[in-house]
Write a structure and sequence with these properties.
The protein has 200 residues and is an alpha/beta fold. The chain is 38% helix and 12% strand. The protein contains 6 helices and 4 strands; from the N terminus they run βαβαβαβααα.
Length: 200
């Protein structure tokens, strides 16, 4: 998806990524953020699976009369870990080259609820669990190095080491290694994977 920002990106802007920002709560969140008049203005990146709907959402947001920020869209399919990594790599590249303002927030809004229909992600996970949880976990972990701290805050020691997080991300590539038999919380895992209504 091409850059569909409002004007140029002046100094002082902040970037926020909103998954599933083309409709529903994600679209409403994007609109509210773009119209926010307090603090530095925002550059909103709509992270969406459907390019056509994303472009339509960008056009609608640009047409809002009270918009003070900027908006564009990038393709992201949370049902594919390869797509998540590609999105994070492209966004990181744009942040490092100055094409985008510094990243200050990630809104993990996207989610699915297939009901009683059994669907699987590209990596072999239950779709509800894979999209609503694993995809967002990997996305945030990939973007953490670029995420800016609020003014006046200090970075706290993370509860998990980098090696532990990398190990968890590696296991995402092998669904069999995350099966109920390989965790002490196997009953809880079954409850999450079989949960008909997404807890998000």
């Amino acid at each position: 998806m091409g850059d569909r920002s409002v004007g140029s990106a002046p100094t002082g802007f902040r970037t926020v990524v909103i998954t599933g920002g083309n409709s529903g709560l994600g679209f409403a969140s994007a609109k509210a953020i773009l119209e926010a008049s307090h603090g530095a203005p925002w550059h909103v990146v709509l992270a969406c699976r459907d390019e056509g709907r994303a472009r339509s959402a960008v056009d609608q947001l640009i047409g809002c009369t009270n918009v003070v920020g900027q908006v564009d869209a990038m393709r992201l399919n949370l049902a594919s870990l390869a797509s998540v990594r590609a999105f994070a790599a492209e966004l990181t590249k744009r942040l490092r080259t100055g094409t985008l303002p510094p990243l200050h927030a990630v809104v993990c809004n996207a989610g699915i609820n297939p009901g009683t229909t059994k669907t699987i992600t590209a990596d072999g996970f239950d779709s509800t669990f894979g999209v609503n949880h694993l995809g967002h976990f990997l996305l945030v972990n990939e973007l953490l190095p670029m995420l800016q701290l609020p003014r006046g805050c200090r970075r706290q020691r993370r509860p998990r080491s980098g090696a532990e997080v990398r190990s968890a991300c590696t296991r995402l590539e092998r669904p069999s290694r995350l099966g109920p038999r390989r965790t002490r919380c196997r009953c809880r895992v079954r409850q999450i994977i079989g949960f008909g209504s997404a807890p998000l």
